[in-house]
Amino acid sequence: MRTLLCILLVTASALAQNPAQDPGQYTLRTQSNIVLVPTTVQTKHGDVLYTLKQNQFVVEDNGVPQTIHLDTDTDSLGLSLVVVVQCSRSAGFEYASLSGLSTMIDALAGATPHEVAVIEYGGKPVLVDNFTRNPDHTASALSRIQPCDNDPDASTLDAVAYATQMLEARQNHYRHVILLISETRDHGSTTKAAQVIAMLGRTNTVVDAVAFGAGRAELKDALRYGGAIPPLAMLAMAINALKKNAAHELAALSGGEYINFTTQKGFDRGLNQLTNHVHNYYLLSFQPRAEANGEPSPGMHSISVKVPDYPDAKVRFRESYFAGQLDANAPENP
């Protein structure tokens, strides 16, 4: 049996250090397991809502309303960012659009403490540059990425799993973000989709995906109906969605942004949109209701976030977490 600790359940004990001493610390003050739900809210016209209060959010776990906390000091959190760039298959045709990527990444990181690593991948992930705080090193790494046209695979799940493992090894309390630039579909991964879903939540990692080629929004009903669907069936549906559009579903499951582009202008516009959203979000959290054994019910959980005062708002949030153990019976990659 393979043990993967619960998705999105992180222990936030001993996090009451002085912010002046560690600008990357969490501001949450609790001794219990919590689920973190990064959330962005836009009006129907696309304007970001900045001043919402804790009591304006309704968060449900498998359809059950939760008692939530709103962290009001997200600016103090640093950022560990892994840029994951596909180099195989049709990626080479899109490289001209990526010329301004290093500048965009600087804007994406902003003025908060941050570190950036770079990975390229085709059939397997390759570390181009490890975590650095030097933007010149990042720019140099990005310039060294070249198309690998002879590689027939695009193992997106393998690359995301590799990036997530890197983030898990970081000895800080920074936010974990993967910027994925890829085709929409996975080709050739050996990592099970269920493992990736679990890893993203265990490390509290958000995937922002910028995909090239024709894309489709593949949100699955499994994450809309909570406890009405058995956890294993819910997980299977999420895995099926990953098959249809891995880039989109990784972003949706983790609470990140999904941008699809076909032109240079579309790529630039998408990254600008990402930059705006990554610096203007709400960090909600809740303690899952425990069962008799002191743990939340095992399996896949769906999360929903609503803002009743703005019924027409577009709310983006982490849609799921996985509690308990992921064993050998978890569904395989489709």
Short description:
By secondary structure, the protein is of the alpha/beta class.
Fold blueprint:
Layout (H helix, E strand, L loop, with lengths): L8 E3 L21 E10 L15 E4 L2 E2 L2 E4 L7 E8 L14 H9 L4 E8 L3 E8 L2 H9 L12 H13 L6 E8 L10 H10 L2 E8 L18 H14 L1 H9 L3 E4 L2 H15 L3 E5 L12 E8 L7 E4 L2 E4 L11
Helix pairs in contact: 1-2, 1-7, 3-4, 5-6
Would you write up a description of this structure?
- The protein has 334 residues and is of the alpha/beta class.
- The protein is 24% helix and 26% strand.
- It is built from 7 helices and 15 strands.
- It is globular and about 50 Å long.
- Mean pLDDT is 75; it is low at 1-32 and 214-226.
Q: Roughly what is the average pLDDT, rounded to an integer? A: 75
Give the low-confidence spans: 1-32, 214-226
Rg on CA atoms, Å: 19 Å
In terms of structural class, how would the helical and strand content be classed? alpha/beta
The CATH architecture of the largest domain would be 3-Layer(aba) Sandwich
Please give the order of strands in the largest beta sheet.
Answer: 8-7-6-9-10-11
